[in-house]
């Protein structure tokens, strides 16, 4: 069992790293430990390498986003929940550019492998709810949806953010028409 202070230190480190790396992908481990208010030894005990820290930040964010699905489905119809969830995912992916800069190619692949299953499971849950209530076409595929929405976080955000309009088109294609 992990002590409460150790859990708090880990959470502080992850929060500080998330913010610092999103601002500047070259932020040092020492800067992150200072920002988190912990010593370098505590940081390295939790995350022995920079890459392990960045991977943990990604995993934490994926868990946060995928964990919102049940509440969204309890609060709104499936298509609205899917729109809200996808918008959150797009915002998170856009914030991750600094994190991506901090990783090597092997870590990028590890992130993709580790996050694909949970993200597909979340999309499946959202699509299945819409299929069940008849608002989403029965042939909607989670893998296809993820591929399509991948374009959203790379869409131009200025002078006008194109992602909301593109998402509306994707969601319209998922609707049952009858």
TrEMBL record:
Domain of life of the source: Bacteria
SUPFAM superfamilies reported for this sequence: Homeodomain-like, Tetracyclin repressor-like, C-terminal domain
Source organism phylogeny: Bacteria, Bacillati, Actinomycetota, Actinomycetes, Kitasatosporales
PANTHER family tied to this protein: HTH-TYPE TRANSCRIPTIONAL REGULATOR BETI, HTH-TYPE TRANSCRIPTIONAL REGULATOR RUTR
Pfam families: TetR_C_43, TetR_N
Keywords: DNA-binding, Transcription, Transcription regulation
DNA-binding region: 28-47
Transcription listed as a keyword: yes
Gene3D superfamilies according to UniProt: Tetracycline Repressor, domain 2
Residues annotated as transmembrane: none
Sequence ranges assigned to domain HTH tetR-type in this UniProt record: 7-65
Protein name: TetR/AcrR family transcriptional regulator
